[in-house]
Amino acid sequence: MFQGTFDLETATPIDASALSDVLFERGIYWASGRSGLVDLVAAHKWFNLAALKGRKDAVELRQEIAGQMSDAEISTAQREARAWVCAH
């Protein structure tokens, strides 16, 4: 856990294209079970968001994961992605 401080006076924003990479990595995290738990709903959500930000490979992985999910799970993932977009 990070326990330092951020100097907001000298901080620089990340490149806008970096956001898609971060979202994609979150999808990989949940799809691969790096946390010890595979969460396809969370993976679909993050891949969906990465795809919205321009990551073309996220589209393919989202489709692959969707093939392993129920319609209800896909709906939940899409709802969560919409909620994230509205909040950010």
Beta-strand residue fraction = under 5%
Radius of gyration: 15 Å
Q: What is the total tally of β strands?
A: 0
Low-confidence stretches: none
Mean pLDDT: 87
Q: What secondary-structure arrangement, pairings included, does this model have?
A:
Layout: H1 18-32, H2 40-52, H3 56-66, H4 71-87
At a glance:
With 88 residues, this protein is mainly alpha-helical. It has one domain.
Plain-language structure description:
This protein is mainly alpha-helical and 88 residues long. The chain has one domain. It is 64% helix and 0% strand. It is built from four helices and no strands. Helix 1 packs antiparallel against helix 2 (40-52), helix 2 packs antiparallel against helix 3 and helix 2 crosses helix 4 (71-87). The longest helix has 17 residues, at 71-87. It is globular, with a radius of gyration of 15 Å. The model has no long low-confidence stretch (mean pLDDT 87).
Give a quick set of tags describing it.
88 residues, mainly alpha
